[in-house]
Amino acid sequence: MDYMSGGSLDVHLKMNDFRLRGYKIRLYTRQILEGLAYLHDMDPRILHRDVKSANILLDDRGDVKLADFGISREMKDKTSSMPSITKGCGTWHYMAPEVSKGERYGRSSDMWSFGCVVVELSTGHPPYHDMEGPQATFKVAEEKAIHQGYSLSERAPEDLQMLLLKIFQYDRKQRPTARQLLEEDSYVNDLAKYH
After folding, report:
1. How many domains does the chain have?
2. CA distances from 188 to 23, 36, 111, 129, 153 (A)
3. How much is the pTM?
4. N or C: more exposed end of the chain, with fewer CB within 10 A?
């Protein structure tokens, strides 16, 4: 394991007054996706189950990697989700609606949490950060109001908005995989023109 001297992404955000430049947001988004794709493509597949900025670490070059696999689980078969023994696992503000309802956890649940991290990278906070965790989760899961829980800058690129629309699907079968986004999404693939 590499020594990640830059600390956690949530601390990095605080040290930068919750503001990152557009290129860094794209870079971190891509690097987190690469980590998720690696886990989700393994045999057996690994589900992280607690994707959040505090569990993403920076190295001395400023690159990020997923960390804290304390509640991660292997999927023994190639089905898309695992039994509901995971009810309540994860962190409130990053929790997929199906997880907060006690339904099956799958790689699509990790993808929802990843979307919350992308919102945090872009705005400085995860969706509904101004609410207590259970209230925020209720708002997301029961009222299906994820897009009301954050406000991107009017200068936010359209491809970032499209990325979040793809990820925040309430039908988890409609959420893209990390591999699909790495192969097809313009937001995570247009790094060169923003550097």
Report:
1. 1
2. 10, 14, 14, 25, 18
3. 0.91
4. N
